[in-house]
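From: lab user (bench 3)
To: helpdesk
Subject: output format question, protein + uridine-5'-diphosphate

Hello, I'm new to running complex predictions and I'm not sure whether the block I got back is the full result or only part of it. Here's what I submitted:
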Amino acid sequence: MSDKKTFPAAAADRRSAVELDKKLISITVPVYQEQEVIKVFHEELARVIDQIEGFLFEIIYINDGSTDQTEAIITEIAKSDDRVTLINLSRNFGHQYALTCGLDYASGDAVICMDADLQHPPNLIPLLVQKWQEGYDIVYTIRKMTVKTGLFKALTANMFYRLINTISEVPIYRDAADFRLISRKVADVFRKEIRERNRFLRGLTSWVGFNSIGIEFDVQRRAAGKSKFSPPKMLKLASAGGTSFSTIPLKIGIYVGLLFAFLSVLYAFYAIYIYLFTDGAVPGWTSIVVSIMFISAFQFMLIGILGLYIGHMFEEVKGRPIYIVRSVVRAGCRLPTADRQSI
Ligand code: UDP
Ligand code: MG
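Helpdesk reply: Thanks, we reran it on our side. This is the complete output you should expect:
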């Protein structure tokens, strides 16, 4: 397609005159410690996109601070496949941040985000592209959870989506995966307008609007390696999702406070009745202890919820970058940290 010496022209600029009328599709893939699977993934991805005619492709791997051989392997891949760009982040920022970096760097007319472990099957790409060609700006995918996904994952994901949809102010598609295609228009909204730090891209994709369509797919088993989503990472994602799309948890306090106020009035009547009309049994130690424990537990919970929101506000106020790029590798050559506008 192009002469490698022309680097570092962006894939969009590398189109020859004949190819100018072809649309460019960017595929962005966050990778973290994926040395076991990344080569197989790339081969499978290349096999699928080689069969799609009429489009050009660029593949952007975002190395989210891997400390294993991932970077070396992708650098090798980039030498032999000039569609590949590798962006190395300065440390592990997390999946959502790596995805954001991919969206920022992608120059295609459409951008596809997918995981590197083959759980998001590359052979769904032709369908994503077809739906985009039919006029959809967002083509998202819905995981059909099966035993293959793992019981724990299926259960926690199920609980999470139930809860978040009860409290969220925008619908968050159940079992939506971070495997989707978005048009340039939507990618630009993410690139220019949505710069919040506390990110939950699945919710934001629903929040931005545009005409969208969902496609179901069977989640595959990880081709190799282990899940990089430890329970703390899952909790972080859940809290980002919950607090950035709802203020209802903050209101829990008001409702429960009202309930307690009402109950305490009833209890006061009861206490007065006991005082006036009976021999005054020993003032109820049990009820005092139980109610103090109950109320203080509830207060702790509320303080925790307040803390979550304040923590997220603190993150935003600090105004730090969402991620930091250490280096960019394209066509097998290492570029210094590039300004994303200039590549
Ligand atoms: N990932 C990442 N940074 C992280 C954790 C994961 O870039 O801190 C990548 C990972 O390499 C994979 C994708 O995000 O391509 C999804 O991660 P994983 O498959 O481990 O999550 P799961 O499918 O178990 O939810
Ligand atoms: Mg996975």
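A quick orientation on your result: The radius of gyration is 26 Å. Let us know if anything else is unclear.
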